[in-house]
Amino acid sequence: MGQFTNSSLATCKNWLESCASSHSICAHPKDERTLPTRLIDVGCTDMTSRVVSTKGLPNDIPYMTLSHCWGKLAIQRLTRDTLEAFQQEIPWAHLCKTFQDAILVTRILGCSYLWINSLCIIQDDEEDWNKESLLMSQVYGSSMLNLAASGAADGSVGLYFTRNPLTVQRCRIRGSLSAG
């Protein structure tokens, strides 16, 4: 990651800490929240990542999500054949740049869990896919932060790239946080 991203990540980390300490709804996620069936544990002590079942994990554990365009790149996917191996370790070298960047950002921001649809839903299991796809709005809505690789056509681009600052337009978002 380049120099320009270090200050961006520091700013993001400050915002997250401020959010958790200032907003009661952010500091105390709803108890009735449903976790996705699987998450990627990116906080392993040996810096590996692995797929974990959320059974037995507390409902209020923080996790991040990744929004990305699959594009035409053949990205790593969780399948019935890879499930057991990925529960031990997801090979770093087989992950596309966007997934690698998302894992690093998740670690830097102090979060131990990440949800990526292609690695947390068994892609060749219709029953699993149908069950998990129904939960996607809850999965994204309950995450502490969604990383969006919205400027990338596929996973080879990553989360960081040079862009023309003149194309960025200001916008105002109005809303409110409520516990209800």
Describe this structure in words.
Strand 1 and strand 2 form a beta hairpin. 34% of the residues lie in helices and 11% in strands. The protein has a five-stranded mixed β-sheet with strand order 2-1-4-3-5. The chain is built from seven helices and five strands, in the order H-H-E-E-E-H-H-E-H-H-H-E. The chain is of the alpha/beta class. The model has no long low-confidence stretch (mean pLDDT 82). The protein has one domain.
Which key terms come to mind for this protein?
alpha/beta; 5-stranded mixed sheet; single chain; 180 residues
Characterize this entry briefly:
By secondary structure, this protein is of the alpha/beta class.
Radius of gyration (CA) equals 17 Å
Overall tally of structural domains: 1
Order of strands in the sheet with most strands: 2-1-4-3-5
Sheet/helix structural class: alpha/beta
Query: How would you describe the shape?
Result: globular
N→C terminal distance: 39 Å
Mean pLDDT: 82
Task: Map the helices and strands.
Layout: H1 3-22, H2 24-27, E1 38-41, E2 50-53, E3 64-67, H3 83-88, H4 97-108, E4 113-115, H5 117-120, H6 126-133, H7 136-142, E5 145-148
Parallel strand pairs: 3-4, 3-5
Antiparallel strand pairs: 1-2, 1-4
